Amino acid sequence: MPWPTIGCAPHKGRGMKTVPMKSHCTQIKVRTTRRSEVVEITGRVAESVRESGVSEGLTMVTALHTTCALIINEAEPRLLEDILDLLSRMVPEGGGYRHDQIDDNAHAHLRSLLLSPTVVIPVRGGRLVLGRWQSVLLVESDGPRERTLLIQTLGV
Q1: What pLDDT is stored for residue 18 in this prediction?
Q2: Is 114 helix (H, G, I), strand (E, B) or coil?
Q3: How far is CA 70 from the centre of its chain?
Q4: Of residues 91 and 18, more confidently modeled
Q5: Measured distance between the N- and C-terminal CA atoms of the chain, rounded to whole angstroms
Q6: CATH of the domain at 128
């Protein structure tokens, strides 16, 4: 099946020039070491974008789990502790949740529900477009575990 094409730029006298769309998928593993923690993964996402050969497009990072999440925020250590403290206050562990009768990790599911399993980041010039203080972060709520993340980059 041929790759889809997208209109990219006017082509002299012949309408739009078509450029083949690239798609690159990487699966990475992230080992967490604590029950709750935030792990910075920006470098690994940027590496996948470089490998993709995509110059202009989007990168989507998805956690293939229901008890962790992804966010974009500043990776300053005190702020990361504040994020974990906020989630802990909002959804305390051992809060009498019905799911705890099965798995004892309802708090982790509920915390992840407040965040998202996916972040989408623009790619320009073959690089992630992030603000000066922005980083891609995995928020673990049921560790320690090995987490699987899917990084999908689409573009030209």
Answers
A1: 79
A2: helix
A3: 5
A4: 91
A5: 18
A6: 2.60.120.460
pLDDT digits (tens, 9 = 90+) for 28-81: 999 999 999 999 999 999 999 999 999 999 999 999 999 999 999 999 999 999
Domain tally for the chain? 1
Please give the pLDDT value at position 6. Answer: 46
> 62: burial class by Cβ within 10 Å (0-12, 13-18, 19+)?
middle
Residue 12 lies in a domain: no
Does 61 reside within a domain? Answer: yes
Domain range enclosing 26: 22-155
Question: b/e per residue, 5-40, with b = 16+ CB within 10 A?
Answer: eeeeeeeeeeeeeebeeeebebeeebebeebbbbbe
Evaluate whether residue 122 is within a structural domain. Answer: yes
The total of other beta-carbon atoms located within 10 Å of residue 150's CB is 16
Q: Identify whether 17 is part of a domain.
A: no
For tokens 């002299």, the residue is 12
Using CA atoms, how far apart are residues 65 and 153, in angstroms rounded to an integer? 20
Angle subtended at Cα 81 by Cα 128 and Cα 27, rounded to the nearest 5 degrees: 40
| Residues 39 and 140: beta-carbon distance below 8 Å | yes
pLDDT digits (tens, 9 = 90+) for 97-121: 999 999 999 999 999 999 999 999 9
